[in-house]
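Input sequence (344 aa), recorded before submission:
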Amino acid sequence: MMMLCALAACNQRGKGALDLTDLDPTTSPKADFYQYATGGWQVKNPLKPEFSRFGSFDAIAETTRKNLNELFESMATLQAEPGTVDQKIADLYKMALDSTTRNALGAQPIQPYIAEIQAVASKDALADLLGKMNLYGEGGFFGAGVEADLTNSDMQILYLGQGGLGMGDRDYYLLETNAALKAGYQAFLEKALTLAGVENAAQLAAKDMQVEDAMAQVAWTREQNRDMQAIYNPMTSAEIDAAWPELRFGRVCAAANIPAQDKVIVEQPSYFEGLNKLFKECDLETLKAYLLCQFVSGQCGALSDDFYTASWEFFSHQMAGTQEQQPRWKRAMSVPNSLLGEAV
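Predicted structure, token format:
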């Protein structure tokens, strides 16, 4: 990776195929090739506490952030015409900078959504809510999205794939070497729920881990997901409902305003078989606990500083190894840059 970063840095600076100052000629490549290939780069680019890694692509991204922030700062005082792109970008940036308002509000903005999850009284209603949550980018259990058909690039079709693991990869749940991370993740969920004013936070976080552990057990490995033929399994909406009725796929889609499909690509059929079994055997309150934990966790970056810090302490510090939070201006500019990237 660092060798590729060095090459990219050369191209960025307009130099030749290789910048020899990024190497460490005092080290034999036979003894330590990593140090030989990247030693010079490491000296010129010491790792700052807010980063867990820093290669040339990170350097380019950092320069871009600084340039974009000048644009956002100039827009902060802009009196843009309502409804314009300028107004949308400026409003998002100013809202993201306004920690005073967010700290005063605390968990208040998400209370209606928490109440909606807690009010679910049946698995049918849970499927309806899951479809509704997907409309604003939330939910869990699995992922869905529209992409080009791998066998017919003229068609855009729905893909259905495994997802919903808070730590991302199954190995974080299954390998004993990651036991400390699992404990840290559960502690974070408990803290986030507590900050949100949810009762019995510890018990709900434990229930979430039961669900995520079960999902990890049936999730495909990274190697399996690289097999493009294995992940191409076309099915109709009716066939999905017939194969895995406990998932209530038709209800989820209806709530998300997705009509029945003649072709859906199911990427990991055995995962959905396992998920169907989980939905059948798991009680409603445990499934709701998972959905609640995933929702609150996903909102931490948009709420008060105590939520952000709780999320940072686990995901950025414990998992990724960063030692310092990003300055507020970087966090603020990431909001319009991510939500309105093309407009920016």
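Checked by second reader. Residues 1-14 have pLDDT under 50 and may be disordered.
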